[in-house]
C-alpha cells in the first residue's frame, strides 16, 4: 500500500466517522454539516496527522473533488 492509498483510506475513515456522528446526533447529512463536523473533529484532534486528514477530508467534501 502506497502513501497515497493510505492517505485516501484515512480520509475515507474521517468522512465515514463524520457521517456516523451526524446520524447519531440526529442531524441531516448535508455537505455543510459534513464540513462542519470534519472541521470540529480537526480542532479536537491532538495529533498532526489527524488534523491534516480531517482538513483534507473537509476540503474534499467542500469542493466535491
Overall description:
With 65 residues, the chain is mostly helical. The chain is 82% helix and 0% strand. The chain is built from 3 helices and no strands. Helix 1 crosses helix 2, helix 1 crosses helix 3 and helix 2 runs antiparallel to helix 3. The two termini are 22 Å apart.
What key phrases describe this protein's structure?
82% helix; 3 helices; 65 residues; 0% strand; mainly alpha
SS-based structural class? mainly alpha
How many strands, which pairing sense, and closed or not: the largest β-sheet? none
Stretches where pLDDT falls below 50 for ≥5 residues?
none
Instruction: Report mean pLDDT, rounded to a whole number.
Output: 94
Task: Give me the strand/helix succession.
Answer: HHH
Strand content bin? under 5%
Tell how many strands the DSSP assignment holds.
0
Distance between the termini: 22 Å
Q: How many helices?
A: 3
State the share of residues found in helices, binned by percent: over 70%
Q: Kindly provide the radius of gyration, computed on alpha-carbon positions and rounded to a whole number of angstroms.
A: 11 Å
Q: Could you say which overall geometry the principal axes of the C-alpha atoms support?
A: globular
Write the layout of secondary structure elements.
Blueprint: H1 3-25, H2 31-44, H3 48-63
Amino acid at each position: 500500500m502506497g502513501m497515497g492509498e493510505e492517505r485516501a483510506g484515512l480520509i475515507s475513515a474521517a468522512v465515514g466517522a463524520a457521517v456516523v456522528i451526524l446520524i447519531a446526533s440526529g442531524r441531516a447529512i448535508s455537505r455543510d454539516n459534513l464540513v462542519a463536523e470534519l472541521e470540529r473533529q480537526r480542532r479536537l484532534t491532538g495529533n498532526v496527522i489527524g488534523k491534516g486528514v480531517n482538513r483534507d477530508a473537509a476540503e474534499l467534501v467542500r469542493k466535491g473533488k
